[in-house]
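Box 4.2: Ligand-aware structure prediction
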Amino acid sequence: MATAKAHTNIALVKYWGKKDQQLIIPQTNSLSLTLDEFYTTTRVNFDPGLTADQVTINHKLLSPAAARRTSAFLELVRQRSGRQQFARVDSINHVPTAAGLASSASAFAALAGAASAAAGLSLDRRELSRLARRGSGSATRSIFGGLVEWHRGHDDSTSFAEPIMEKLDFGLEMLAIMINTKKKKVTSRQGMQASVTTSPYYASWREVVAADMQAMKDAINRRDIPAIGHIAEENALRMHALTLSADPGYTYFSSATLTAIQAVRALRENGVGCYFTMDAGPNVKVIYDRQDRDQVISGLTQTFDRDQLVVSPAGPGIQIWNENNNQSLL
Ligand code: PMV
């Protein structure tokens, strides 16, 4: 039996498209910030008494159909470890599920950590990152804390994440504007594949990301939050242009998303350094220097309720432990 806690991450340079759908090898590199406030804790126990995997999320037992993705992931761990038993998986998600707040990132990172340790595999963080990738692309980066780069690589062994700065020594912070916590209609998996195969702009996106990765790393080296925010904002808008330009076109934006974008821009015009990013859902994340937090919050509460705003500093990498003796397994 093993338990793992992994935090979610928000990309500053987005991953939007796979080269290999089975192995989840991405088309481009990407770069993210791990968040302290949103995380998943998962316990895995391989049990000879079980006749199927049993999965609970937030204390609710999933139907076999709903547990299929978890079971497929556990199958990878069984193959690798030689274990035959089914597993009991209990997961608590401190992230609103499927609202574009990347719950799959923390969920599959935590599952990779707990399942591999429970199966007796002792993987290092790079191997964990590769394993988490098989569950969900963004999970690749959630093994590490702080600012993280996912190298796209070209096969299973070369596609993994690495920290750029695990403990931030400057004030980069994020605030999530919780617009909608309901499940999204187009999953990121479907959405990105539609962009790769039907958007006429997809080739340009690869070039955009290559340039943004370099500019973002330079901005991080300078601890230049306005530059980080600006690059992240433009990168997010270009990613979302791939949804509008797919055939059929679609969008993750709701009218409240546009309201939030306008609120951030208005704050910036009034001299508050803040920037926005959005993922596969309507929620907006705001990037700023923590010394400006009060100004950002007081500006946004003119448009949104205070309880829709969740502040999160940078968060840590994965922790894995044995609950029986509280011993760390990583
Ligand atoms: O790996 P997934 O299916 O969670 O897709 C993540 C896609 C984005 O969140 C929009 C971008 C990213 O890099 O996390």
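In the box above, the bound molecule is PMV. The chain has two domains: 2-168, 173-312.
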